[in-house]
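From the pipeline queue, job 12 of 40. The input is one protein chain; the requested action is below.

Action: predict structure.
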Amino acid sequence: MNVLIKSAKVIDNNSKFNGKTVDILIEKGIIKEIAKSITTPKNHKEINFKGLHVSNGWFDMRANFCDPGNEHKEDLNAGLEAAAKGGFTGVLVMPDTQPSTDNKGAIEYIINKAKGNAVNAYPAGALSYHCEGKEIAEMYDMHNAGAIAFTDNKKSVESASLLNRALLYSQSFGGLIMNFPNNKELSQGGQINEGIISTQLGLKGIPALAEDLMVSRDIYLAEYCNAKIHLTNISTKQSVKLIKEAKKKGLNITADVNSYHLLLNEEELLGFESNYKVMPPLRTKEDIKALINGLKDGTIDVICSDHTPEDIEEKQCEFDHAAFGIVNLQTSFAAANTALTDKLDIADYISKLTTAPRAILGLKSPIIQEGMQANLTLFNPNLKYTLSKSDIVSKSKNTPLIDKELVGKVHGIVNNNTMILA
């Protein structure tokens, strides 16, 4: 693959070209030259978009691909195509499939099926067998097979004893434990955020307390075990406060937020639109403000898509019976960018899509410099567009962002000696 990227503003805090507008010459997947102006050589494809920006390739820490078991909703190939169209060159694949990714063979299935793709797929192993929260899975075997993190995804680990053992055991091989903080006794049967809106709609609420209590417990366990833990799907003001305090104490705590939780609030549910039904639920404007402040001050490390495909039967039904989740890989950047424009410096929040997730997962981050493998995302953060249903390449189309104007357009990716334009 031979490509010349013209007049692109570099967004990469680790590159000496950060903030500069340059041409980037790529030959056979390697960055050969970066300069103010380069003449397009013969047999090279020229990429030239107005307002073009380029960063090191984005990485998503929360991708649900339903493969194996529910390939009618999404499979690995369709999911990776959606990731590429959304600007991601790497994804962490969640393990609560059917069957769960809870053994060496299941990890190898993900790795082998994703081989040769422009997007790198990294499997997360299940923390417990079948993601049931009863017995620790074969984490060490999965680690040796290629698992880079362990989680039961949205099936929050209720047992403090189990999580305690997992935190201790994982230290022997440097495994990362991820947990979704959700007290199931408090959230059971809930549909949307507990508050004025849930009362108005007559729907059972999911209290912020369900998250806050579990965040507090997980922080205490991490401190007790002197272990690192990654708290995922953070959505409340109090959770941000607790994580901030834990970091000030020097505890090894990291956290992520879903991009749609930065853009959408609970008032969207007033029309009973099931595509706004997510877990954790859309919270208040006050919570969103706290989440954005948490990104600013480093309390929250990563922005995720939480891409969760659901078929039409799971969404077009009575609200109480509708499934949680939206497809968001293609819109994750636009959702975050729309919410964060004029609130955070672009280099700061792009780092939460690039270097931060890779650092947490122990992966090497690509750098935009000569001699390095080209692992790039091409985008325009200022371009406005309206998402249409036909734009979505995922098998499922469950998103409330169809026909909504968003700010921030992905133009494509370059990775593994391959270029894919969105």
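Job complete. Residues 290 and 388 are 31 Å apart (CA to CA).
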